[in-house]
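Good morning C.,

I know you're traveling, so I'll keep this short. The sequence:
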Amino acid sequence: MAQVIPFPVRPVAAVDDIEIDIFTAVDAAIRDLRDIAECCDASARRQAEECRQMLERAFAVALSQG
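The tokens, ready to paste straight into the viewer:
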């Protein structure tokens, strides 16, 4: 019978330990909202889409300003 050798467990970083810039955070939120909207009822989908569109506009403005 084969012997299973477990890999060492990697510590999971606490949320406070993860550094992320605002552009990466907004980009991730836009993608997440797109995915979430696909799984919601009509009312929640509309709200998620409106939020995503708002973030996309703000993100585009921020990128254009350098």
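Safe travels,
E.
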